[in-house]
Amino acid sequence: MDLFLRSWTALRTAVAELPDEDFERPSGCTGWLVRDLVCHLVIDAQDVLITLVTPADTEPTVDAVTYWNLVEPPTGEDPLDALIPRLAAAYGEPRWLKFHLADVGSAAGRAAQLADPAARVGTRDEVLTVGDYLSAYVVEWTLHHLDLIAHLSSAAEPPAETLAAARVSLEKIAGAPFPASFSDKDALLIGTGRRTPTEEEQAALGDLADRLPFVLG
User: Which stretches within the chain are classed as H helix?
Assistant: First the structure.
């Protein structure tokens, strides 16, 4: 829960500190501007709130690692992916996107603090504990923080501890460690296809290179 709050607070703070002109810059998400990504974060926060008030009384079917499915890289043709830019544009000025994220985002954070980590919740036709659900979202927040700052050199990076935790989770999902020579940030960017490895990094990856990218859905 602590890492969830740290990663989420850092991401929301980074958004709040962005100058308006940065909302029109590309993000690290294929086909999305920064404003589109922020709109997606609003929806993510709503999903967190919905899940935390959706109790389940059956045994967990997934945990923090198996919650994630490996999917094909986005093409921009998914109906929801295409809807996000239209929703983001409807906000008009960046301040309204900032306001909505601050509002619903802080509520999601408070709900996470108040939730019982051992309680079970239902989402995506699966059941898992609150603790596992919030742990899974550390990966989501950290990757999207990297997406947010992909083309913004002055924006703050995710906290080191959440980068490390997200790397551990991705390695569990992949079933193999990334080279020790990779920083946590590079392991996440290369591992999820957000950055192409250099020749040296490709060689260090060995057989794992053939399985990249690990796109989470």
Answer: 2-16, 34-52, 79-90, 94-114, 130-148, 160-174, 184-191, 199-205
| β-bridge partners, 33 | 26
Residues belonging to the chain: 217
**pTM, 2 dp:** 0.95
Query: Considering only CA atoms, which of 91, 89, 12 is closest in space to residue 44?
Result: 12
Q: How far apart, in Å, are the Cα atoms of 118 and each of 48, 63, 82?
A: 16, 12, 36
The gap between the terminal CA atoms of the chain, to the nearest Å, is 21
**Bridge pairing between strands 126-129 and 215-216:** unpaired
For the chain, give the longest Cα–Cα distance: 50
- For the stretch 22-81, pLDDT in tens is 999 999 998 899 999 999 999 999 999 999 999 999 999 999 999 999 998 776 677 777
Residue 33 φ/ψ, nearest 5 degrees: -80, 170
**Long-range CB contacts for residues 14-18, cutoff 8 Å, separation at least 24:** 14/145, 14/148, 14/149, 14/155, 14/156, 15/41, 15/98, 15/101, 15/148, 16/98, 16/102, 17/155, 17/156, 18/94, 18/98, 18/152, 18/155
C-alpha gyration radius of the chain:
17
Question: Do you find a cis peptide bond into 213, omega within 30 degrees of 0?
Answer: yes
B/e letters for 38-74, b = 16+ CB within 10 Å, e = fewer, are bbbbbebbeebbebbeeebeeebebbbbebbeeeeee
